[in-house]
UniProtKB/TrEMBL annotation:
It comes from Amycolatopsis tolypomycina. One of its GO terms (cellular component) is cytoplasm. This is 2-oxo-3-hexenedioate decarboxylase. The lineage of its organism: Bacteria, Bacillati, Actinomycetota, Actinomycetes, Pseudonocardiales. It holds the Pfam family FAA_hydrolase. The keyword ATP-binding does not apply.
Length: 251
């Protein structure tokens, strides 16, 4: 199997499959990012538009659940946007997680980007919910597997309230995750690498190593603040933020 075939096969996957590393034993992180980039190329060839990036595995809750202690980066396209009021389409084994979402005002290029310089390039911050859906059985994967699978990306929804990041202390911004009327988990922005701006800086610095930058208007999902909740058997999941409003997904 080569990079192009791996990307095409992951893009086509509509039910649980074995991890890529089961058949590609020496798959490394760099090759996995090449597969992710090739999958983006194939998505664009079928008409999707790049709208930004997401970070994954930036909180301890997520790292512990997945057994991986390093963050990852993945691509977001317009086909992954779930507009308000649209129910989550059928997926393999979807899970939802609350995230803080930046909208870039200016281009942000690494290396050497700090949390402070990163925040200065942001136009506004929103609350959001990401719906992940690993193509791998039981979400069992290595870091290269998850990178090749574009960070388990499926859909995401951005809440209606956006404010300049300077108007809030994002490390203290709280999210309550509600499933069918029960609060099942809570976290603040500090769960994300100490401050979500650290995740933004990381994204700029990791992209710089590949000759890329965060572009004006891009969305940046900074990573699940809490553990993700399975959507099977649920009918409604909501995230309530302390200053960034609420959003609800019908599941
Ligand atoms: C990998 C994707 C992680 C996040 O926010 O941590 C992610 C996974 O958990 O399947 O999107
Ligand atoms: Mg996520």
């Amino acid at each position: 199997m080569n990079v192009r075939e791996a990307a095409a096969s992951l893009l086509e996957t509509a039910s649980e499959r074995e991890p890529l590393s089961a058949e590609w034993a020496d798959l490394d992180v760099d090759t996995a990012y090449a597969i992710q980039d090739e999958a983006l190329r194939q998505r664009r060839a079928r008409g999707e538009t790049l709208v930004g990036v997401k970070l994954g595995l930036t909180s301890r809750a997520k790292q512990q659940r997945m057994g991986i202690d390093a963050p990852l980066l993945a691509w977001l396209t317009d086909a992954m946007v779930l507009p308000a009021g649209v129910p989550v389409p059928p997926l393999i084994h979807p899970r939802a997680e609350p995230e803080l979402v930046f909208v870039m005002g200016r281009r942000l290029a690494g290396p050497g980007v700090t949390a402070a310089t990163a925040l200065a390039a942001v136009d506004r911050v929103h609350g959001g919910i990401e719906v992940i859906d690993s193509r791998y059985a039981d979400y069992r994967f290595t870091l290269p597997d998850a990178v090749a699978d574009n960070g388990s990306s499926a859909y995401f929804s951005v809440g209606p309230v956006g404010v300049p990041p300077s108007s809030l202390d994002l490390s203290l911004e709280a999210a309550l995750l509600e499933v069918d009327g029960q609060i099942v988990d809570t976290a603040t922005g500090a769960a994300v690498l100490g401050h979500p701006a650290e995740a933004l800086a990381l994204a700029a610095n990791v992209l710089a190593a590949r000759g890329l930058a965060l572009e004006p208007g891009w969305l940046v999902l900074t990573g699940g603040m809490t553990d993700a909740v399975p959507l099977r058997g649920t009918s409604r999941v909501a995230a309530h933020f302390s200053h960034l409003g609420s959003l609800t997904l019908a599941t």
